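Query structure, 148 tokens:
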């Protein structure tokens, strides 16, 4: 990881680090063999056109959500990987977890009680490595901690 006090410039994606654990747990664990991740923001924007704007729209961001899509390989015996795969047959509050995203510059984003949407577990061709694919869906406002 880069030193947060001297970090600048571009960086490889693998310098982003993730950890996960039961909602409210003291300790979060990394997830072995993550291969790719993608982040999408869902934004609620309300629009209106007042008479005084002469036809020009006004806008206000009124809501946000984040989805982090992860593809990994199933790694039996890794605490984080086992935790995610253990959610396969859970519903409701049992499918929630705390998730933390650490950026290379030292910024940390913690999603408390995020919904873990497991999408693929263990399937594939005979010679494939078993997948572990899931989405982390924000469930309320995350806690963002800037580097010091």
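Result returned for the query:
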């Amino acid at each position: 990881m880069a030193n947060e006090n001297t970090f600048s410039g571009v960086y490889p994606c693998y310098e982003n680090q993730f950890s996960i654990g039961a909602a409210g747990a003291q300790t979060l664990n990394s997830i072995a063999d993550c291969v790719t991740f993608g982040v999408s923001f869902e934004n609620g924007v309300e629009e209106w056109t007042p008479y005084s704007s002469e036809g020009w729209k006004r806008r206000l961001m009124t809501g946000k959500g984040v989805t982090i899509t992860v593809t990994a390989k199933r790694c039996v015996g890794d605490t984080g990987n086992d935790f995610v795969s253990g959610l396969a047959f859970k519903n409701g509050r049992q499918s929630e977890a705390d998730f933390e995203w650490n950026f290379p510059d030292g910024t940390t984003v913690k999603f408390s009680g995020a919904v873990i949407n497991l999408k693929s577990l263990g399937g594939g061709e005979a010679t494939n490595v078993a997948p572990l694919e899931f989405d982390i869906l924000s469930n309320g406002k995350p806690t963002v901690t800037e580097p010091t």
